[in-house]
Amino acid sequence: MPALAQVTPPGSTTPATPPNAASAQEPMHQPAEKARNWSLHFQQTLIDQWHNDLTTPYAGDYSLADRESAKLSFTSTLFIGRRLWKNAAVYFNPEVAGGSGLSGARGVAGFTNGETFRIGDPSPQLYLARLYLRQVFALGTATDFDLDDLNQVAGPTPQRYFALNLGKFSTADFFDQNSYSHDPRTQFLNWSLMSAGAWDYAANTRGYTVGGVFEYVTPGFTARFASTLMPTLANGPVLDFHYGTAHAETVELTKVYHLKGRQGTIRALGFRNVAAMATYNTAIRLAQLTGEQPDVTLVRHDGHTKLGFGLNAEQEIAKNVGLFARVSYNDGKNETWAFTEIDHSASLGIASTGDRWHRPDDRLGAAIVVNGLSPEHRAYLGAGGYGFIVGDGPGTGYVANSGALNYGLEQIGEVYYSFALPQYHASLSPDYQLVINPAYNRDRSGPVHVVAVRLHVEF
Q1: Mean pLDDT over all residues of the chain?
Q2: Could you give the angle at which helices 280-290 and 375-382 cross, rounded to 10 degrees?
Q3: Please, which residues have CB within 8 angstroms of residue 123's CB and are 6 or more apart in sequence?
Q4: How far apart are CA 112 and CA 330, in angstroms?
Q5: Can you give the pLDDT at residue 118?
Q6: Is 2 exposed, middle or buried, given 0-12, 13-18 or 19+ CB atoms closer than 10 A?
Q7: Fewer CB within 10 A of the end CB, N or C, for the chain?
Q8: Which long-range contacts (CB under 8 A, 24 or more apart) does 134-138 make?
């Protein structure tokens, strides 16, 4: 799947008031004194990324290239919102994306650019990112006032409510949010930092799906449930509308609390995906019979499932500094279908404003993440199989049923600094990532040094 073009709808965030060290970048707001019927905003993000030359003993079709030129990616999104009636609005987001990730966005499970897609054609393409209806049902008379924002129309909104969202969107718009680490356009670039790495969330190649999200929201607690479509093929661009045999369910509970006067939030997520996935062990057994490399595309079967969970926490530790952490897990018996080839993951990071050096709108972030595979997934890659993002193939001197994977946990560190340019409604962010054991292979451990520059504009 995706590395996504995602911006979390403000009307759906918990906590409603983000901590100071959350992303400072905001679009232009209309005056807040009155309700409006329309919302119109725009974003553009350009990322130029490069990695050092590598010397490795072998490579497969999906390995990170030993040598390659810098790669540029960009997305442009128009956010249009229209109030329909009381507490209801429709949101329409056409989007253009182009460019490429390093090595075609392959070779690292926790890939290094959250704005890239695994699409062969790098030319700019226009597509529909989101088109969904949001209906809110008030629970009580207390209200707040929503500012005009991305996918949010200015006006009064209930403090406690049920909400129903129907249409096309990104599942990550509503789930696994984190004030410090969720949006690759303004925060960390790495896939396994922008979302829980082992959450194989339903999406097409560009990161979007069709379905419904039901929300129960109060100032301190939120419960969400979604039922959405899966792609027809692993990492496929087309969604499967045969709902009886392919669908995904996601549930999440979010609690806001205060520790010594500092705000914190904890989220617990669970998911179940159903699709025509292959079982890794079945692919290996077939390869043993034929003497060929294992291939999941030969043994796919309707009705296979993937189960998993994630825990996600953020804690303000000072006025302008916050910590975050995620752990996630899936059973890893059947092939990865949508996001990326990670079966368990843990991350820890810190974010700060630039207030101490008199740059309050700047942001500094640093994080580490460790990704791993299930025994079945590891055995499949070790036998020379390919997923849709990683696989170093059979290695040198391949013989039947023998592959190349000197397994090790994939370890990634990332540091970014976002220079705010408020007069231009923009930010400029240098970014550095260190990748050890890309695609879980100690033989290709590198280390890989990835440097990027990101320009982001919002209006």
Answers
A1: 91
A2: 30
A3: 98
A4: 21
A5: 65
A6: buried
A7: C
A8: 134/9, 134/11, 134/88, 134/89, 134/90, 134/91, 134/163, 134/164, 134/165, 135/87, 135/88, 135/163, 135/164, 136/87, 136/88, 136/161, 136/162, 136/163, 137/87, 137/161, 137/162, 137/163, 137/164, 138/87
DSSP structural state of residue 276: S
Average pLDDT in the 82-91 region? 96
Q: Omega before 438 cis (within 30°)?
A: no
pLDDT of residue 5: 39
Chain Cα centroid distance, residue 234: 16
Structure tokens at 324: 């975050």
pLDDT in tens, 98-147: 998 999 999 999 999 999 876 656 789 999 999 999 999 999 999 988 88
Which amino acid, 366? A
Residue 237, number of CB atoms within 10 A of its CB: 14
Sign of the Cα pseudo-torsion (353, 355, 359, 364, in order)? negative
User: What single letter denotes the amino acid at residue 306?
Assistant: K
Question: How high is the pLDDT of residue 2?
Answer: 38
Cα separation, 240 vs 301, whole angstroms:
14
Judge whether 400 and 292 are in contact, CB under 8 Å: yes
Closest alpha carbon to 5 in 75, 93, 81, 73: 75
Q: What is the amino acid identity at position 159?
A: Q
Whole-angstrom CA distances from 350 to 51, 181, 324, 356 are 24, 9, 6, 15
Q: Report which of 275, 274, 301 is spatially closest to residue 286, judged by C-alpha positions.
A: 301
C-alpha distances in angstroms, 159 versus 219, 221, 271, 307? Answer: 6, 11, 27, 33
Cβ count within 10 A of residue 349: 24
Tell whether the torsion through CA atoms of 88, 219, 22 and 156 is positive or negative. positive
**C-alpha neighbours within 13 Å on the C-beta side of residue 385:** 31
- C-beta of residue 414 within 8 angstroms of C-beta of residue 189: yes
- How far is residue 58 from each of residues 70, 264, 331, 395, measured CA to CA in Å? 22, 46, 30, 6
| CA–CA dist 31, 249 (Å, integer) | 39
pLDDT tens string 186-237:
999 999 999 999 999 999 999 999 999 999 999 889 999 999 999 999 989 9
Q: Which one, of 161, 198, 176, 165, lies nearest residue 252 by Cα? A: 176
